[in-house]
Amino acid sequence: MSGLLSVVEPVSALRLICGAFFIPHIFAKLQFPPPLLDFFEQAGLRPARLFMTMALVLEAIAATALIFNLFTPIAALLAAAVLTVATICLYRVRGPIWIWDRGGFEFPVFWILALIVVARLSST
Q1: How far apart are alpha carbons 108 and 82 in whole angstroms?
Q2: Mean per-residue pLDDT for 58-69?
């Protein structure tokens, strides 16, 4: 193999990707945009600002731990749990839409499965 994967183990690459993908989510929540607060409200997570702050903190902890390979199995399972709640919320707000570009939950389900793989392979 050549390139980046010849230097980085595949599970490490997956771990880094899973952690780094939280960064835009964290930055979006830092601004407390009204549409995001409305989403939390519609999902039944009240008070929305409190739940968004909790999601932000948990995502930041999981992302940091995954990126820096700290407590990786626990961080991956924490991230998967946060995304499971997000997926349930997507389902509650938007209904049974699978395709991500229509607001569905295809991508978070994939991300959850990738995190479970990271947790499993990192614990051996």
Answers
A1: 10
A2: 98
Show me where the domains of the chain are located. Answer: 4-122
Tell me which residue has tokens 């607001």: 103
Please report, as a single letter, which amino acid is at residue 124. Answer: T
Place 104 in a pLDDT band, splitting at 50, 70 and 90. Answer: confident
Whether the Cβ atoms of residue 122 and residue 73 lie closer than 8 Å to each other: yes
CA distances from 113 to 3, 18, 51, 116 (A): 26, 10, 24, 5
Q: Are 10 and 17 in contact (CB under 8 A)?
A: no
Amino acid letter for position 84 = T
Whether 113 contacts 87, CB under 8 Å: no
Q: Specify the pLDDT at position 103.
A: 81
pLDDT for 2 beyond 60: no
Model confidence, pTM: 0.90
**Tokens read off for 104:** 């569905």
Task: Please name the helix (run of DSSP H) or strand (run of DSSP E) that holds residue 18, with its range, or none.
Answer: helix 10-20
